[in-house]
Amino acid sequence: MNKPHRATQEDVTLVGVGASVRREPDDLTWQFASWLTTEDEFSDSVLSSRVRLARNIRGYRFPHRASHEELSAVIKRVKNVCPKCPSLENARYIEIQKLSDLECKYLVERRQASPQLIESDSPSLLILSESEDLSIMVNEEDHLRIQCVEAGLGIDSAWEKITRLDDELEESLDVCYSREFGYLTSCPTNIGTGLRVSVFVHLPGLSLRGKIDSVLERLPDSEIAIRGFCGEGSESIGNIYQISNQPTLGRTESNVISRIIQTAKQLIELERDARVTLLEKSRVTVEDAVFRALGLLKHARVISSFEAMDLLSTLRLGSELGLVKEISRLAVSQLIVLVQPGHLQRIYRKKLGAEDRDMLRAEFIRQNLVV
Amino acid sequence: MNKPHRATQEDVTLVGVGASVRREPDDLTWQFASWLTTEDEFSDSVLSSRVRLARNIRGYRFPHRASHEELSAVIKRVKNVCPKCPSLENARYIEIQKLSDLECKYLVERRQASPQLIESDSPSLLILSESEDLSIMVNEEDHLRIQCVEAGLGIDSAWEKITRLDDELEESLDVCYSREFGYLTSCPTNIGTGLRVSVFVHLPGLSLRGKIDSVLERLPDSEIAIRGFCGEGSESIGNIYQISNQPTLGRTESNVISRIIQTAKQLIELERDARVTLLEKSRVTVEDAVFRALGLLKHARVISSFEAMDLLSTLRLGSELGLVKEISRLAVSQLIVLVQPGHLQRIYRKKLGAEDRDMLRAEFIRQNLVV
């Protein structure tokens, strides 16, 4: 059986989880992003928040109309400008076309690259800031898709960081902006602010109470969408849902952000209430669910990523409620990310078939749930 | 939550299992029968074996035709004779009509009393030898139903003990015997030897290999029946099956016994082969099943008796195969008996509703699976 790479003195240790993995600065770094190693006051119900801006550079056709040469010129321009941005100090510049399938899969699981960027044959680039909070996809649907991810409900912080980077970029780049419409983008639905805000909420309490469907249905704000973990149209895995603004013209950034925060806080409140009610009215049922999940995670020899997400979701609730003391909520949140297929293959530094993945996933979880 | 009674110096400790329970000689003793605390060379696949003889006493009508007074007279006669039998030294004489529902349930689960005996309003008696290997139901379908239970495939030993007791009884009791038909019994199917031999086999390997149905179907001997754990017509629980002779006139005791032993040994061989194949071809699948069972048993907070039997069955296989070192095969076999509803209520000394039973069963299992 393949052993995961073992720690050396240069390694970065995964907060709260026993595993450690070597950092390779020249490679597609296996590193622990700031959003994956910190928490805030809403981390009981929120995993992370993300803010994205779509921008295009004046003087080049938009990506789906641009020639190979034009796209290469965009990349060259961006590579020239970015090193001058203080926000991107020590950033890595990753040429998507040079990556292996495995590295692509890993980046998509982290949501640093979109499937669209990965599958494209055109020249494209991913820029990752040192702590992986900021990133820029170059030549995806727009010339620039700037993204900032923060732990918990850190939307304000993400907004601050991303606007700072946006300002730094616009000092050297002339972006497509219309006084009438605002920022111009490839898809009309993004025109205006080019802003998309997403919050990943963890709602196991509402799910165990059987309230999740009714809560999501009666969500008051028509300009907000809630989807399962894997985005559009997908079912929720591990009781993780994504709240995001619907593409809408004519809204200000602050309006979008405040609506998302409001909706997120409503959901957090309902989730917290559900957890209190569960402990009051069905303590044994919750304990049973949590400890069964712990028992399976600590003992199973084969485990699919779906089952792992499901069990880790329940364990995270148990950790949050203080029922399970042996593993922190943060460590469980990290495992939820790390057990994804691409991540797992990165940890074991090997392309693995589904059967081997399921065995190594079980092994990795067992190793990391030991007190 | 109710705590089970804790050990004192007078207590008998359950072999291999952490729990201990007080022995109360004057009560319906909570005691560990010899068949539940020993093993033989076939215990990998056989839990216990049982031999039963049906006898009736000359001069009294058979139970279903006898008057209340006649049945009382039978009991008086038996109570007079049994203390003279060396096999029944220190035996207990239990008047069924004086027992609580709970005590009755417990005795039925141990198979020391039949449901028929328990439900009857007529005078009836249960005699239990000191180590609970030998017992006699008085005034069930026949005046005497003599039974001997041994661990593993101990049919020869059970046969030796039961014939010795039969001889001891017949020194003082004149039993109904016909030169033409043999022993006479209430039901014609028992006439002749009055003998019923049963073996409880544990076949998780055949079950995991998906071979159990075909094996049971092609069982060669038409005079042998194989049924699920709960007897006639029932599904198997925990992969436990009961092999027994079909009631047949005109067979000698030795013929019946050798046929049962032959069938049992065939099944044992097939089960052992299945286990070897499992380890060779599907080791990870077996390990996964075994450790998942262990994980659930060690962590669940609520567990039904069906689920407990099922998981303990898989754990017993894991212990047998050396996959699980922390609990012995014998300790698991004991738990399989102890987690039954009547036993559990006896352990906690309280009549319990289904919900409380399921919680206390989970608690009891957790306490007893601690290394």
Notes on the structure:
- The structure is a homodimer of 371-residue chains.
- By secondary structure, chain A is of the alpha+beta class.
- Chain A has helices spanning 34-37, 68-81, 101-109, 115-119, 155-172, 204-208, 212-217, 253-281, 283-299, 305-320, 329-338, 341-347, 354-369, and strands at residues 12-13, 20-21, 46-55, 92-95, 125-128, 134-138, 144-151, 177-178, 182-183, 195-202, 224-228, 240-245.
- The first copy, chain A, has two domains: 5-25 and 282-368, no CATH class; 46-274, 2-Layer Sandwich (Creatine Kinase, Chain A, domain 2), CATH 3.30.590.
- In chain A, helix 8 (253-281) crosses helix 9 (283-299).
- Chain A binds chain B through residues 284-285, 287-288, 291-292, 294-302, 359, 362, and chain B through 284-285, 287-288, 291-292, 294-302, 359, 362.
